[in-house]
């Protein structure tokens, strides 16, 4: 019996959410993301049955990160947002991500 290649790579998914704890470190500034702070979570699929979440402060979003988000969702406005994020905060984050993308 011929074996097929096992792992098919999947695109990472992203979301805008509130930090439930202060344990995560921002990948950009290396500072802790405090409880209740708005953050961007990248859910990366490492191998079958295994994934990892990478976290950035919303203010630390890089053009590369925003471009990756847009490549998955088509637009910044389509990135999923967690239930706890205030609509006003959500809009502010989306506007700042658009600015990052514009450069």
Describe this structure in words.
There is one protein chain. This protein has 103 residues and is an alpha+beta fold. It has a single domain, classed as Zinc finger, PARP-type (first zn-finger domain of poly(adp-ribose) polymerase-1, 2-Layer Sandwich), CATH 3.30.1740.10. The protein is built from two helices and three strands. It has a three-stranded antiparallel β-sheet with strand order 1-2-3. Strand 2 and strand 3 form a beta hairpin. The radius of gyration is 15 Å and the shape is globular.
Question: TL;DR of this structure?
Answer:
By secondary structure, the chain is α+β, with helices and mostly antiparallel strands. 26% of the residues lie in helices and 23% in strands. It has helices spanning 63-73, 87-102; strands spanning 13-18, 38-47, 50-57.
CATH architecture: 2-Layer Sandwich
The largest beta-sheet arranges its strands as 1-2-3
Count of helix runs: 2
Overall shape: it is globular
CATH class: Alpha Beta
CATH topology, which one?
first zn-finger domain of poly(adp-ribose) polymerase-1
Instruction: Spell out the CATH superfamily.
Output: Zinc finger, PARP-type
- Helices and strands, in N-to-C order? EEEHH
- Helix/strand-derived category reads alpha+beta
What is the strand tally?
3
Low-confidence stretches: none
